[in-house]
Amino acid sequence: MQGIIGSAPPMQKLFKLVERVAASSSTVLIQGESGTGKELIARAIHYHSPRRDNALIPVNCGAIPEDLLESELFGHVKGAFTGAAYSRPGRFELANNGTIFLDEIGDMSPKLQVKMLRVLQEKVVEPVGAVKSLAVDVRVIAATHKNLEKEVAEGRFREDLFYRLNVVPLLVPPLRDRAEDVPSLVEHFLEKSNRHRERKVTVPRDIMDLFIRYRWPGNVRELENLVERITILADGEVTVHDLPEKLLDGCNQMADIFPQPIPAAAFAPQLDDEAVIDFNQQVENFENQLILAALEHTGWNKNKAAKILNLNRTTLVEKIKKKGFERGLE
Ligand SMILES: Nc1ncnc2c1ncn2[C@@H]1O[C@H](COP(=O)(O)OP(=O)(O)OP(=O)(O)O)[C@@H](O)[C@H]1O
Ligand SMILES: [Mg+2]
Hints:
Layout lengths: L8 H14 L5 E4 L6 H10 L8 E5 L5 H9 E2 L11 E2 L1 H4 L4 E5 L6 H13 L1 E2 L8 E2 L3 E6 L3 H6 L5 H7 L2 E4 L10 H16 L7 H9 L5 H15 L11 H13 L21 H19 L4 H8 L3 H11 L7
Parallel strand pairs: 1-8, 1-9, 2-5, 5-8
Antiparallel strand pairs: 3-4, 6-7
């Protein structure tokens, strides 16, 4: 997809969905951790859609104070409130025949959530102070780094609005779940930053390996910032001295227990012509060793152990349960 790097299978799947939803005018809800590329995906949907020649109007619902957001979104008429010397169109009106991108929708106040529901249901907006409502033809794309299902369960987000928004749900995966894209992303931002700053910084193989192993809690944005930082600080080839502590710590924690690569010979059984080895049993033994080592190292903290093993916490917990591992019996 143009301007968006993603050869990893979850990204390829996402691009297919983007192309499919772009053709329609249905409401899209994009979820994903901070810095995963939600805004980029929203833009891709608009520019692949039949509305591409009309406006794409972004609104950051988290950044605009509540009392201003209503008039920003729906506009106001002259004299609607003190200081409203002129009528002003809202962003929905500006987005007519195009797309509105409601970023950080999870931060919208309950009062505005009600009004938003009405816009989505009836496709009309009511400028502040107006007597008549205004029909609009706007495609809505919303995004949030919050888990909206959880916000609904905890009473902070209206369930009816959630269902109105969640017509087509898209999830942008965290970078740690698509580590194979890390080298292309690094090269992409490196090329951009080198060109911009007239530098010739390169990333050697061993540093790239660190980048691939790091968990990137701030996702692509963190990677982009880091590459920018090293093009300023490094001279020629990047070394570990140019990297922030945080990244080295994250990688060292893994190297402490599992120096990379684990020598294959350490696990290969002795073979001769008579030997019969139970492949599944061997794999299971290896898996048990890895899981127990990570659990012991972290004092049975399953979150930390899952991080070290680069497994989902739920996957690890399931394995522990299935294997019957218990603290104290290890
Ligand atoms: N797959 C990608 N390929 C190239 N650049 C990317 C990719 N994903 C994200 N970026 C870049 O990373 C930065 C963060 O992306 P974006 O702003 O879309 O993330 P976000 O999910 O909206 O983040 P936040 O939750 O912090 O608002 C941007 O500069 C964007 O251009
Ligand atoms: Mg964003």
